[in-house]
Design a protein that fits this description.
By secondary structure, the protein is mainly alpha-helical. The protein is built from 31 helices and 10 strands. A 6-stranded mixed β-sheet has the order 2-3-1-4-5-7, with helices on both faces. Helix 3 links the parallel strand 4 and strand 5 (109-114).
């Protein structure tokens, strides 16, 4: 029989790192709270009969946000065979509160004391055997990042699951309170373990438990709760919490020996004096982002060091447009392929995919750098710093986390909105998230940067387009908070993790996952779209094959010409091809580049521009100026996201009504911003 083991713990305690280590999975890990927003399932790689679930982080089994509800519901309703409770050993007192609550459910449990390397580095000592003796629960010291202690941990977890080891009650409650717990437990149905836990939650006034009761039972139990309050003369929720913390203090006193008593200024404290300084924080953040873009997209760094991303891009372009293309086309010609087949492969597939694949190195470099900042703990500080700014437009700094994830992909960013406590914050954040420039939009900017902005302005161009998205999110948030989302701003409470030097393995996994996802999309969605675009651009409605100079009579040209009048005020409605690019971008934003590659037959030009600084691509410079190109980039940055993101938006919003409201808002903002860029830019340049 298979054994199910759930990983539970506070946010940012190392659950997902442990999950990856045990299962060989590559789930996203970030050094900030709220990275895991749904339960993930995997199989223990040393025993295929053991199923492991990674639950979202929660500080207690009294949840306030959606991802905490996911964790609590799984533990108390699904009741896994065992729980591995990951405890951050550097913050053991705070973490043990959740331990006490899980123990009350009666589910067999093992405590994994994580980050023991940091405890030792501080000179502190945790006597895990003493802690195990006091709790009656196996305690295993581990270092999840390095894999230390994994075998011992899983052996203990499997043993308690097989034995169904009972957990004794730890906390001694006052007599009147304990009587109330016993009376309520006796009145409930179900197993004794479940009744005891529910009784405590009912005394705490837990609405989720109370909703499960029928009216008659609820009335009976409310009478017992009132009697218990009279006996104890205390607020019951506060009294229960106080009893638990007193017991935790006793545990810590007996098992933890600290080198320094009282607060000692750590390395993180010293760095925070600079990086979270109210005057310096935002300029430092802007400087770090600009440096990151310079490394990724610039010709040189500080005019001396060659830009890594641009250099790697040149290598990929040379290979794609040289040996690979020559080999494929020569092979087809030798095989006697017809003219339309040569056009499909050369003008369609190779031209379309070439424009996208050539930007893979820069996407890899960008996300390696982003992963480094995330894993170091710096991005959690940015969320803290952003709280003051975000409050001006009706959100807390906690919304910065899903918005930040939007720089990678809007789909997980939408899911990350579950970390927010109320519907107002969640919906408003989801409406603003697509304004963050996801990785799929990056090739669009790079295409124009290589074409129309070759004279050392690429870093500034990319920097400005990313910050345009953030600025529009701020302004859009102000508008939404004054109209659709009036109300109180939720409080922002966030744990700032210790600064850590990210492991090379973690950073490389992040980078590889981004490139892998991009490559898979290029080999499926973009490839299929490229073939479809080639067909629609090479055939008329009568299915007559068209030569290069007849594309204006194609199916796709007729469609583009029919609606291009809408985009004339934005500066790029004079030609049907940019309009078609925008439409195909709704399937996947990278499609815009592959569409241009087919319709302009511009793959060679993209490669040459990246490698040699050529100023124009065939045909594109006749359609766009720098101003209209920037307007086009802005429109596709801010408009409706791809279909996958729309699907995630619908799921998280819960209704099509709110989904259409979000899409309508995004389309309106995109149109207005692109119009202003075109009008003002046309006057200035």
């Amino acid at each position: 029989m298979s054994i199910t083991i759930a990983l539970a713990g506070n946010p940012n305690c190392g659950k997902t790192t442990l999950f990856n280590e045990l299962t060989g999975s590559k789930q996203h890990v970030g050094n900030w709270p709220g990275v895991t927003v749904d339960k993930k399932e995997g199989v223990y790689r040393r025993n295929k009969d053991v199923v492991i679930l990674d639950l979202p982080g929660t500080y207690s089994l009294s949840p306030y946000s959606q991802e905490e509800i996911i964790a609590r519901d799984y533990i108390v309703k699904e009741r896994p065979d065992a729980v591995i409770n990951i405890v951050d050993a550097t913050n053991i007192e705070r973490n043990l509160y959740l331990t006490m609550q899980i123990a009350e459910t009666g589910i067999p449990m093992v405590i994994a004391l994580n980050m023991m390397d940091e405890v030792e580095a501080r000179g502190d000592k945790i006597r895990e055997k003493e802690l195990e003796k006091l709790l009656g629960i196996p305690v295993v010291p581990i270092v999840a990042r390095s894999g230390k202690g994994m075998t011992e941990l899983m052996r203990a977890a499997v043993d308690v699951a097989k034995e169904e080891a009972a957990i004794r009650n730890h906390v001694a409650y006052p007599e009147g309170l304990q009587e109330g717990i016993d009376e309520i437990a006796a009145a409930l149905d179900g197993a004794a373990k479940e009744r005891n836990w529910k009784a405590i939650k009912i005394l705490e006034g837990d609405e989720m438990v109370l909703r499960e009761l029928d009216e008659k039972t609820k009335e009976e139990l409310e009478a017992i709760v009132s009697q218990t309050e009279e006996k104890t003369e205390e607020d019951l929720e506060a009294l229960i919490a106080d009893c638990k913390y007193k017991y935790i203090a006793k545990l810590v006193k007996a098992s933890v020996k600290k080198k320094h008593q009282g607060h000692v200024e750590t390395r993180s404290d010293k760095l925070d004096k600079i990086l979270t300084n109210r005057i310096l924080a935002l300029p430092i953040f802007a400087g770090i982002m600009y440096l990151m873009f310079g490394i990724t997209f610039g010709e040189t760094i500080f005019g001396v060091i060659p830009g890594v991303g641009t250099w790697l891009q040149g290598i990929v372009c040379d290979f794609w447009e040289g040996p690979l293309t020559d080999m494929i086309m020569n092979g087809l010609e030798v095989a006697g392929a017809s003219g339309w087949a040569l056009s499909l492969v050369g003008d369609g597939i190779l031209a379309g995919l070439g424009g996208v694949i050539s930007f893979l190195p820069q996407i890899l470099i960008l996300f390696l750098l982003m992963s480094f900042l995330e894993d170091s703990g710096y991005m959690a500080r940015v969320a803290f710093v952003m709280d003051k700014l975000f409050r001006k437009f009706g959100l807390s700094g906690k919304s910065f986390i899903p918005l930040l994830m939007g720089f990678g992909c809007s789909v997980p960013a939408m899911m990350a909105s579950r970390t927010l406590e109320n519907d107002k914050d969640r919906r408003m954040t989801m409406m603003l998230t697509p304004f963050m420039s996801c990785g799929a939009k990056l090739p669009i900017y790079l295409m124009f940067a290589a074409t129309l902005f070759p004279n050392g302005n690429r870093t500034l161009l990319l920097f400005s387009i990313y910050f345009l998205g953030m600025a529009v999110a701020v302004i859009g948030g102000i508008i939404l908070s004054k109209t659709m989302f009036k109300g109180e701003i939720s409080n922002f409470i966030m744990e700032l993790p210790q600064y850590r030097i990210p492991t090379l393995k973690s950073v490389l996994i992040h980078g590889w996952e981004k490139v892998k996802g991009f490559a898979v999309k290029a080999g499926t969605v973009i490839l299929a779209s490229t073939v479809l675009i080639w067909f629609l651009s090479r055939f008329s409605f009568r299915l007559q094959y068209l030569e290069e100079d007849q594309l204006a009579s194609s199916i796709i040209a007729k469609i583009g010409n029919a609606i291009r009048f809408i985009f004339i005020p934005l500066g790029f409605g004079s030609d049907w091809r940019p309009i078609v690019g925008t439409i195909t971008g709704f399937i996947a934003k990278e499609n815009i580049v592959s569409t241009f590659g087919v319709l302009f037959n511009a793959a060679d030009g993209i490669a040459d521009a990246a490698a040699e600084g050529v100023t124009a691509l065939p045909g594109i410079d006749a359609v766009f100026t720098q101003v209209t190109a920037y307007a086009y980039m802005a429109f596709n940055l801010l408009c409706m996201p791809c279909f996958a993101a729309v699907g995630a938006l619908r799921k998280e919003m819960g209704t099509w009504k709110w989904t259409f409201k979000a899409i309508g808002f995004q389309m309106l903002v995109a149109y207005v911003v692109a119009f202003l860029i075109n009008m003002i830019g046309g006057l200035l340049f």
